[in-house]
Amino acid sequence: MTITTRSIAQHESEWIYSTILTRQLNLSSLNDYIHQIPHVPLIVELYIFICGYAFNPTMVPFWLGLVNVLTCTGLSGNAVAKFSGTTIDEQWGKLLLTIDSNKRGHMNMAFYLATVLVTLLFTELGKASFATTRPKVPTSGYATIMGADDKNDSIKFKRRFGSLVASLKSKHSFPSGDSSQAMNLCLFFLRYVPTTSTVMTLGGYSIPVRDVVLFSLFLPGVVFARVFYLCHWIEDCIGGVSLSLLIHWLIIPFLRDYTVVLAKSFDLM
Questions:
Q1: Distance of alpha carbon 205 from alpha carbon 195, whole angstroms
Q2: How far is it, in rounded angstroms, from Cα 5 to Cα 13?
Q3: Which of 4, 52, 96, 196 could disulfide-link to 165, CB 3.0 to 4.6 Å?
Q4: Distance (Å, rounded) from C-alpha 144 to C-alpha 142?
Q5: What is the per-residue burial (b if ≥16 Cβ within 10 Å, else e) of 231-258?
Q6: What is the residue-averaged pLDDT of the chain?
Q7: 126: nearest Cα among 6, 256, 248, 238
C-alpha cells in the first residue's frame, strides 16, 4: 500500500518544482520517499514533532521568553570579552551592555519579534506570489492522531502528531514559513544572543556549542519534519532557509538600527 501525495508529473508541473535543482538532486523522488515512510518509533517521532511544531504561531511567546532569559544570563557580569573573536555582532553586544540589566532582555526580545514579523511578511508574500500546491494528505490508510492506528488494521501510515503539526498552516506551500523562521532563529541566536556556553572553533570563528546544535540538529529537524508531516516539499524548505539568509543579509541590519531608535523612544535604553 502506498499513499498518494501527488504524482511526480503533477508535482513538477509547477515551475518552481521543475528547476535544475529539483532535477539534478532528484528531489521529486526524495519527496516521495519521505512522504512514504510508514512510521517511525515514538521516541524518534517526538523529536520530529518538537521540530515540526516549534514555529506554530502558539509557540511565539516561548521563543520570545527564551530570547529574554538567554540575553540576560549571557550578559551577566562584565561580558565585553565574549564578543571578541566570536560570531556574535560585537557592536550589538556592547550596545546591550550599555542598557540597564533589567531591560537588556526586553530589548533583544523586541528585536527578535521584529525579525519574526519581517520573515513572516516575506514568506507570506512569497506564498501568495507563487501560489504552489501543498502535498495532498491521504483520506484513507493514514493516521494523524496518537492511537488511531491501534483501532484500524487498514492504517498503514502513522503520523501520530500530524494534526498538531499541520494546524494553523496557510494555503500555499512555497516558501516554507517554518523553515524560514527556524533559520531566522538560528541566525538571530548566532549573531545577537550572547552565551556563556562552551565554544568550538570553526573556520577561524569561535561558535558556541548552543549554536552548533541549533544548526546541526534543530534546523535540519524542522526541515525534515515539515516534509515528513506532508506540510511541504523539500524545495519549499530550501526556499524558506534561503529567504531567511537573504533577509538577514539585506534587511535585518537596517531593522537592528531601527530597533535601537524605537528602544530609545520607549525608554528601553
A1: 15
A2: 14
A3: 52
A4: 7
A5: bbbbbbbbbbbebbeebbeeebeeebee
A6: 83
A7: 238
C-alpha cell at 71: 540575553
**Rounded mean pLDDT, 208-220:** 90
Tell me 57's DSSP state: G
pTM exceeds 0.70, yes or no: yes
17 contacts 235 by C-beta, under 8 angstroms: yes
DSSP 8-state secondary structure symbol assigned to residue 86? B
Of 7-11, 101-105, 134-138, 162-166, least confident by mean pLDDT is 7-11
Instruction: Choose among 49, 32, 34, 39: nearest CA to 156.
Output: 39
How far is the first Cα of the chain from the last one, in angstroms, to the nearest whole number?
A: 62
pLDDT confidence bin for 238, thresholds 50/70/90: very high
C-alpha to C-alpha distance for 125 and 237, rounded to whole angstroms: 16
- Side-chain half-sphere of 170: how many Cα atoms within 13 Å? 18
Q: Which amino acid does the sequence have at 18?
A: S
* Strand duo 199-202 + 142-143: pairing: unpaired
Cis peptide before 253 (omega within 30 of 0): no
| Predicted local confidence at residue 199, as pLDDT | 72
Question: Which cell goes with 11?
Answer: 508535482
Report the C-alpha gap between 257 and 264 in whole angstroms. Answer: 11
3-state secondary structure of 54: coil
pLDDT, tens digit (0-9, with 9 covering 90-100), for 127-174: 999 989 888 877 666 776 666 555 555 667 788 888 888 887 788 899
Between CA 23 and CA 244 the distance in angstroms is 24
